[in-house]
Design brief:
- The protein is of the alpha+beta class and about 200 residues long.
- The chain has a single domain, classed as 2-Layer Sandwich (Alpha-D-Glucose-1,6-Bisphosphate, Chain A, domain 4).
- The protein is about 25% helix and about 35% strand.
- Strands 1-7-6-5-4-3-2 form a seven-stranded antiparallel sheet, with helices on one face.
- The longest helix has 28 residues.
- The chain is globular.
- It comes from Amniculicola lignicola CBS 123094.
- Keywords: Signal.
- InterPro entries: START-like_dom_sf.
Length: about 200
């Protein structure tokens, strides 16, 4: 039996170390309890933290670039739309989503696919510009709970890491996973890609 050369062993060792390092990536997302299922994505984008934060929190402009969230309307806790349509903690958020997402390219005149239109009524829980994080949650008693976090991290050299994750709990979570889990995952990936396209031109 012929033994592998020392050079090949060295390259195999380096390759294994790179895989190990990539699997232990740092994250700006907070630790949360595991749920029935999770969807999420992460993507490096050539931009800066303040610019990507401005795009993420400019809800009226979502339709111009986002194939997943086509509309995001902030309201008071009593359901009255706010004058400034930017996220505010302890306010409500009405989302009109496409699950699965629309194909690229999209802009504000791109029509929804009525068969894939879903509405979600969320509570805005965290707006943390100093940490580069924002979050909202959906709660329907014991039936379904979900919390979505988005986070950005400065990687240096003109790059920012965008991360997004939603964890689902409750009696209906398994059914939701079967029914639209794949579409939700595609939606998260499409939003990240939409961000990259609008920010990188």
């Amino acid at each position: 039996m012929r033994l592998p050369s020392p050079r090949l062993c060295f390259f195999n060792l380096i390759f294994s170390l790179l895989i190990l390092l990539s699997s232990s990536q740092t994250t700006n997302l907070p630790d949360v309890p595991p749920g029935v299922f999770t969807v999420g994505t992460r993507l490096e984008i050539r931009t800066n933290v303040s610019t990507i934060w401005d795009v993420l929190t400019d809800f009226p402009a979502y339709a111009s670039w986002n194939p997943f969230v086509r509309s995001a309307i902030v309201t008071t806790p009593f359901g009255v739309p706010t004058r400034e349509q930017y996220p505010i903690e302890n306010h409500k958020l009405i989302l009109r989503n496409q699950i699965p997402p629309l194909p690229f390219p999209v802009d504000s005149s791109t029509p929804d696919n009525p068969l894939n239109t879903q509405f979600a009524f969320e509570n805005i829980t965290h707006i943390q510009p100093d940490k580069g994080r924002l979050a909202w949650e959906y709660i329907f008693e014991a039936v379904l709970q979900a919390e979505r976090w988005q986070a950005i991290s400065d990687l240096g050299n003109g790059k920012v890491l965008y991360e997004s994750r939603e964890v689902f709990h409750g009696l209906a979570a398994e059914t939701l996973k079967v029914w639209m889990g794949e579409g939700l995952q595609k939606g998260f990936e499409a939003q990240a890609e939409g961000l990259r396209r609008v920010l990188e031109g």
